[in-house]
Specification:
Low-confidence stretches: 1-37
Distance between the termini: 106 Å
Number of domains: 5
Strand order of the largest sheet: 13-12-11-10-9-14
Length: 608
């Protein structure tokens, strides 16, 4: 049966069966009138099913005999006449209106076409109910249509309905469809449309790329710069690639190169290998007399490299030594950065800033080898070696480096990278533990400052009772506190992941800020309740009442109230007394304090 991956438009099938009307396959295929009465759609479909069955049967028999056949396809009816004229089909056979099939066989089977293949094909075709006329060609025969400027034959083959294809037919089809789309839009600009590569060499399969190149005639362009013309046409031509691939229904990738005629000729004169290859191997699907003369001149040996082109290519050999040395040095620099960059990353992971490359060896040794003891001296030597090479290069001491040394550096860098990834895992595990311990200490340290030095379980209950239930803290912080409490146990059981630790740290950070704010508000309220402002005639100060003693603060000078009056004190004693003073809702003081103040500053007023 016809391969499902090839699209078959119902209108094309209807036309092939019905043979009615006058329809152009493309602009270069001649149309022909068929005077028969048109069939109904149902009759056409039934006739097509019969024809399809016969073609499947024909294909299976042929492939059983000759499995090397590259493609079998049903040519479009509009092209029957030109093939009959080209192949010299007898008029009496042409009157029978046979279906014309195109069969492509490998080039190495050319000698067997007349003796072995053709007799068997005729024998099998005579067994078919439909009259068949099979054109047996090799790829070179197909490409000769293009070389003879018989482009309508290539168009017919490209638009034929596939019965069997190993890649060549699909490649021709996608290039022919793309060419038709391009010519429909830019025919007056296109000088040549050619195919090349594996398709022409005979090595194409179902997934091979299809290499094509288009030469744009820019010799009479006047309204815009040539490069602007090239950019515009190239963009539009490339847009047609997707459309052509979809219409063709093939997997082959269409690679299209677009050149200006003037640029192409300059490259040919300069003997650029790519252009010589295009001209030597290329086959035109469309040509206005540009490509074919070049190809014939090349075959005749008339296109020869100029002395300037020869000198140009000789200079390439002179430059190659310096280019290779430069690329070796570039490789050394790439390896250097491949070693230094992950080392800097690990130092940042450890909480350090990214060190300068000049000091990275000493910094890595101090941090990873001596302090954390997670890096060996062998690994450090790899870093040291890379840094030394780079420094010598920077200072102009290193002019070249042998490829053998690059191979060794690359091997050492790969091993070093593996070690760095291993060190990262160790560092991250250590950071999880350190972060967990730090968060736990901070949270419960704040709770102890608020509620006193009590067990964690008691502190959690106090937090719930005195802060959450009283509305001084949000309810969402109680689960956070319990998570923080469970960190230590998870660290011991090694069940705390980096992701979970990051989440706890973020939530604990909010809890810590709330606890700090609450603690500061509490201390401020406590202090304000124990402060009495004193205003005398010429002097003013503050009486600060603590649980240890009462102080008179005047102009930054601290004095303490005693039974004998005011005695000198200091800020240290004052702050110590403040720390030991518990939270209170009211304060009291002895009348003796007022008597001492009156003796000290005379008449005064108090502000509480």
């Amino acid at each position: 049966m016809l391969t499902s991956k090839f699209y078959i438009l119902e209108n094309i099938l209807f036309f092939m069966v019905n043979n009615s009307g006058k329809t152009n396959l493309n602009d270069q295929i001649k149309s022909s009138e068929i005077p028969e009465e048109p069939l109904s759609k149902e009759e056409s479909l039934k006739k097509f099913q019969d024809m399809k069955k016969e073609l499947d049967n024909f294909k299976n028999k042929i492939l059983k005999k000759f499995p090397f056949i590259q493609s079998i396809s049903l040519l479009p009816s509009q092209a029957f006449k030109i093939f009959e004229e080209e192949e010299g089909v007898p008029p009496e056979e042409a009157k029978n209106k046979p279906l014309h099939l195109m069969m492509i066989v490998p080039e190495e089977e050319f000698k067997n076409i007349s003796k072995k293949i053709k007799p068997e094909v005729i024998k099998i075709s005579l067994e078919s109910k439909h009259k068949l006329w099979v054109h047996i060609k090799t790829p070179i025969d197909v490409w000769n249509y293009g070389m003879d400027s018989k482009f309508e034959f290539l168009d017919a083959i490209g638009n034929s309905i596939p019965v069997h294809d190993e890649g060549i037919l699909g490649s021709i089809r996608v290039s022919v469809i793309h060419k038709t789309l391009v010519l429909r839009k830019f025919e007056k600009y296109v000088a040549s449309y050619c195919v090349g590569g594996s398709l022409v060499r005979g090595t194409a399969d179902e997934t091979s790329d299809v290499d094509t190149f288009i030469v744009i005639d820019d010799t009479d362009v006047k309204r815009m710069p040539r490069l602007q013309l090239l950019d515009r046409l190239r963009g539009m031509i490339h847009d047609y690639i997707r459309e052509a691939t979809a219409i063709a229904g093939v997997k082959n990738i269409l690679n299209v190169q677009v050149y200006l005629l003037t640029d192409f000729w300059d490259k040919v004169k300069d003997s650029e290998p790519v252009m010589f290859t295009f001209i030597r191997d290329g086959v035109p699907l469309f040509d206005r007399g540009t490509f074919l003369p070049w190809k014939l001149l090349l075959q005749m040996g008339k296109i020869k490299p100029s002395p300037e082109a020869i000198d140009k290519y000789m200079k390439f050999s002179e430059q190659s030594d310096e280019l290779v040395k430069k690329r070796m040095m570039d490789a050394m620099q790439d390896i250097y950065w491949g070693i230094v960059t992950p080392t800097q990353a690990l130092m940042m992971l450890s909480g350090q800033g990214p060190p300068a490359p000049k000091t990275i060896v000493q910094d890595a040794k101090k941090l990873f080898v001596q302090e954390q003891k997670i890096m060996s001296l062998k690994d450090l030597k790899v870093l040291e070696k890379a840094v030394k090479y780079y420094k010598d290069y920077e200072h102009g001491k290193l002019k070249s480096i042998p490829g053998k040394e690059i191979d060794l550096l690359l091997k050492e860098a790969a091993e070093y990278d593996k070690k760095m990834k291993s060190l990262r895992n160790k560092l991250e595990a250590k950071l999880v533990i350190d972060s967990g311990e730090k968060v736990t200490e901070e949270v419960f340290g704040l709770l102890k400052n608020i509620f006193g030095n009590k067990a964690r379980s008691v502190l959690i209950k106090e937090f719930d009772k005195k802060l959450v239930k009283t509305g001084k803290m949000q309810k969402r912080f109680l689960p956070v506190l319990k998570k923080v409490d469970s960190i230590k146990q998870k660290i011991k059981s090694k069940k705390l992941s980096q992701t979970e630790m990051d989440l706890v740290r973020r939530e604990a950070g909010e809890l810590i800020r709330e606890l700090v704010d609450y603690s500061q508000r509490k201390e401020l309220a406590s202090v304000e309740k124990g402060v009495i402002f004193v205003q005398g005639k010429d002097r003013k100060g503050e009486v600060v009442l603590t649980d240890i003693a009462s102080f008179f603060v005047e102009g930054g000078k601290f004095r303490k109230f005693t039974g004998k009056g005011l005695v000198d004190s200091n800020s240290g004693e004052f702050e110590d007394a403040m720390k030991k003073t518990e939270d209170r809702t009211k304060v009291s003081f002895d009348s003796n304090v007022l008597d001492i103040l009156k003796k000290e500053i005379g008449e005064f007023s108090l502000t509480i």
